[in-house]
Fold this protein.
Amino acid sequence: MNQETIENAIKLLLTGLGENLEREGIVETPKRAAKMYLEMLEGMNYTNEEIAKMFGKSFEVDTTQMVIVKDIEAFSMCEHHLALMYDMNISVGYIPNGRVIGLSKIPRIAEMCCKRLQLQEKIGEDIAEVISIATGSDDVIVHITSKHSCVTARGVKSRGSSTTTTTKKGKFTSDYDLTREFMNGLK
């Protein structure tokens, strides 16, 4: 990502909106906004494999108990409108295959996967893939509920609506009792 290019794009946007680039409240906006985008979209700098390597230090364990980390708060930006996905609640479950990762790593993985221009459906797939790479388990499930400002603040302006997606891999795709156990664990 290139900060100078982003700053120039923000200047062009502000000009297109009819703003005076010399106005006191606007003069530093291109620089501030560029820094914000660099931070909010940091995950675009990394592949899923690189995220798994950064946060996926695992260790051996002799258990097949489902691991669930729920109520991970995050946000992302929709690639269709560059609009915010907010009030995002992410829950991740997996069944260890001889290895587990530290529980604090799961929110870090979720957050980094969200820091991309994304679709909510793709966020779930990315988180599941990173967890799978990090743990060596194919049995991963990701449940996401979020509000989308492209729905709540423009167009239909359906302020109360939210979107829910569930990504399932491995045993979760065919074992409905396992999926039910995960969903019950979210209550």
The radius of gyration is 19 Å. The first strand starts at residue 58 and ends at 60.
